[in-house]
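--- STAGE predict ---
source: upstream dedup step, 1 unique chain passed
mode: sequence only
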Amino acid sequence: MPVPDVHSASASESGQRRVAGALARSGAREGDRVVLTVPGSAAYVDVVLGATRSGVVPVPLDPRLTDHELNRIIRDVEPGIVINTQDRLEALFQGPEHDLAPWPRCRPMHFTSGTTGQPKGVWSGLLSPSDAEALALEERELWGFADGDIDLVVSPVYHSAPLRFATGTLLAGGSIAVLPRFDAAALVDTIEAISPTSMFCVPAHLQRLFAHLDATGEKIDASSFRLLAHAGAPCPLPVRQRAHEVFGSSVVWEFYGSTEGQFTACSAEDWSAHPGTVGRARAGRTITIDDEGLIWCAVPPWARFEYWNDPDKTATSWRQTPDGPAFTVRDLGRVEDGLVYLDSRREDLIISGGVNVYPAEVEAALEGVAGLVEVAVFGRPDDQWGQRVCAAFVGDVSADDLRARAAERLAPPKRPKTWERLPALPRTATGKVRRGELAGPDGAPPPTSRPY
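--- STAGE serialize ---
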């Protein structure tokens, strides 16, 4: 069970310069895209920084994507380079050292599916030098990144939050250590070996850590941590309270955000005084609620974005407010005494182990299976993952055929874990599928379903 090496800012800087040189030698120019579909590592973070500090746009993707998922994204972004093997990643470090901008000139382009089923890139555009500096310093001031930090990366580094924490730490002169995959025993060993100071995780990671400690009787010394940030899914109350006890209430923070942008930050003290809140608006942001209950967030220039190749979706996600341009991801909530409360995440979203799964994307991938009349994907509560992905289907088709199509077209987190045959899908008078009814009361299956 290897413990990851600590990767210093100085070592990273040298690697970033060589990556920038390799990109320049390959002909990559400002605004060009480079797709990354390899597992996370410290070298991966160096590539992201070497690219962004050269104005080249990294597109981090889940290496578990199927060819069906990957090819449509590649057609969309038209990358100049695709890094899909470890050898290709390592080849970038053979370039001549090249000058870098002091701050990343763009944000990585992460992809989100939304309710349409078609993944869309979130694109910040190339930033001016002043906006690039403001973006980096905003994160540093909020999370306190410093040259003495060791950031432990336990979440997949192609996700936006762990990548932001890792790059922010390196830019501040600190160090990072990247676990190749989450493993509770390896996490315990790593904490003991390197005394990390910061870590981002999702609630499922904390749940698995505490289950491991209970099963083995082991203890951890968390005194080195100054920051433990969690997000990505609702945190069960027992897990939250134990995190406060193990890591310290002055250490634990939650934040509310999305691939598109960050909304709030919430200290453990604020949450304890106001249970249920996701905190206060981040600096430079104003959060308002419209007549439909949608949350809108006005942001500074360096936090603005558009959806790649989708001006219509971009237009419907932004509006002008007295506080400047504001965006929504269609979450519902309220603001009370400056504190934000979430009433519902965006329509139909399933969050399983911190991974966003959009039913429309899963349903689209299953279309065309012989004998399938219709299918609806929904979430049910799950003790380990928060929610699990389920599917109800109608037609003369076997669950095995549907599983095979899911395995062919969908990465593992998106594949339904439960398949249920129904005579018809429940619908509203206007024809919309009642996903809540499919989940049943308290998440139980409806009585008419037949599980497979």
